[in-house]
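Morning run. Coffee first, then this:
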Amino acid sequence: MINGLSVDLEDWYQGLTSTNRTPGAWPTFESRVVENTNHLLDILAEHRTKVTFFVLGCIANDFPELVAQVQREGHEIGVHGYYHRRIYQLTPDEFAAEIDRTIAAIEAIINEPIIGHRAPYASIMKGSLWALDVLREKGFLYDSSVFPTKNMLYGFPNAPRFPYYPILGKSFVEFPLSTVRIMGMNIPIAGGFYLRTLPYWFIKWGINRIHREGQPAIIYMHPWELDLNQPRPRVTPRERITHYHGRASLEGKLHRLLQDFHFAPLRELLGLVGDQTTLR
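And here it is:
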């Protein structure tokens, strides 16, 4: 079974919710995205694994050589917005403009079509499904932003758990982030905080259970999650858990994950999606 592994290419202060809101202050923070991404690229190369990197437009503008290096090493490049803003806080016109700006920044570096999108903070939810229409109109072939669970930041618990076509009559695919169904609830195992926090045996069990349902697992992570020396500004108690907890174990889990399962860029899964139920 081929699974999808993706990386949201952003710096630590862009993922931290308290500093995410102030992009004007980002130049005052220590950037660690190049070092962290190179470390992740080394791990992927060791396991001969190619994945999808969803790139922020501002990262592409500030670090074009890093994005070029990711492409040279054979990884797919997708879009992750420009300033890591939640889509449900944007209007359709603002979202369309942000997508255009990000595409322009990335296309100035790479010479291949951009067909995939990941929303910051999995922010395509029930009230922001209009974003999928915008993406399709701009020529994207897939999105991977829907998380069929619920927490304080995001979630769409009633969405399909497995890859599906969210726009009736259109060959546009949604790759939901992976959950397992336990006692009537969708339990996340997809990556990020969950990959850092959950024991590896549970993650492995969850992926195998998804395979028994005949479906691929869709896993994600961030380069900053491998960084044990990241600066620690004053953060909320929640951020101490969601942003920093479990980092010491992540690299070992990632090695085991890449040994135990086969991963590929999401574009390679497009032809494997069956005739799944749409939301409309």
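The mean pLDDT is 94. Good start to the day.
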